[in-house]
Amino acid sequence: MATSKKKKLIFFGIFLVVIVVIVIASLSRRKEGIKVQTSKVEQGTLISTVSGPAKIQPEVEVKISAKVSGQIIGLGVAEGDVVKKGDFLVQLDQEEYKAALEQSMSNTKFARAGYEKAYNEYERAKSLAADNLISTAELEIAKSTCEQSKSTVEQAEAQERQARDYLSKTTIRAPMDGVVTQLDKKQGEMAMGSQFTLDVIMVVADLSRMQAEADVDENDVIHVELGDSAKIMVDAFPDTSFKGIVTEIAHSGTTTGMGTQEEVTNFLVKVAMVEKPKYLRPGMSATVDVITESLTDALKVPIQCVTMRKPEEKKSEAPEATEAKETEAEKDSTETAQEKTGSEDKPPVKVVFRVKDGMAEQVEVTTGISSDTEWEIKSGLEEGWEVVSGPYRILSKQLKNGDVLTVDNSMKREMREDE
Description:
Elements: H1 2-32, E1 34-40, E2 42-58, E3 61-65, E4 70-75, E5 82-83, E6 88-92, H2 95-130, H3 136-168, E7 171-173, E8 178-183, E9 190-191, E10 200-205, E11 210-217, E12 229-234, E13 242-249, E14 254-256, E15 264-273, E16 285-302, E17 307-309, H4 319-329, H5 333-344, E18 349-356, E19 359-364, E20 366-370, E21 374-379, E22 386-390, H6 392-398, E23 405-407, H7 410-418
Parallel strand pairs: 1-23
Antiparallel strand pairs: 1-22, 2-11, 2-16, 3-10, 4-6, 4-9, 5-8, 6-7, 8-10, 11-15, 12-13, 12-16, 13-15, 14-15, 16-21, 17-18, 18-19, 20-21
Helix pairs in contact: 2-3
């Protein structure tokens, strides 16, 4: 019996020790609080931007194609050559068009001879008719023959002009100053002339004026306006940005992945480059940041500080007032029930957790514009307040109003030192 009682006392002692350890650990954790990082509410410049991937292209480029068909027998330029307006570019085979011109010239001479003969006969017929030597009908026939011959001459002259025009189009010259950025055909190949489709021989572009053609998401393009300034970051020139100005915004979008979860609608925004690096080339990849709004004295916090929570219920009045109102509660039971129901149905609002007296205070805020890293705070906070900025896992879901906090910004300091 004595041994059994001794064992029970030992087990009871161990149980008490475990309970004490758990309580002490719990109190210790409560005293330590939730470990968070913080930032200060600051006032300063805030820039809102709209971004999109882009390609560098010339503002003006011309696709050179033949207006008549023929074999290319001469090329006056190579890809990369600088040309002036009027410089020789391409020569097509002229033999067929020379023959057509000679034939049309011969037809014109024949028609003119016929007209001259008909005209002389008509003049003679008018003289004879004046002396009543021929009938009026014969005079009319001479007149009609003369007019038909004149029409034949006009048709022949038109065909001659067309043949001469076709012959002139076998020689292609530069329509503008620029650089041959693309050469698609070689000497000996055929150039197909057409009024409806282009058989591109080469491309001449003005590389002195370049632009970035950016794809901007449909949700962002509504904030972009003509004349907005922009920053252009070209992949080939790392750690460097170039100034630009929005010159054109597409009125219709381009949709990719239609009918799938990856469906995206983008609008083409053209940004003229104010600054152009020396070795910039068409087709280079870039990113465009269009500055849609800028504030110089905005109250701001890091973007991760703003999260969504249900609004906090207002604190109840003093106990005395509450007891006094309890007697009237039965009279207004319907209104009280409606108020409780309404508080539960309120949608989440934007909040920031302020660090006050070592505890988290949930503060409802009104936001304005945002940059990639910061939110403008229009109401709810004051400059200099300390607010919770991380970790994201705790800030986004776990943190509640009144939680005890332990501020640890050592990781932020190490990151700044590394930078």
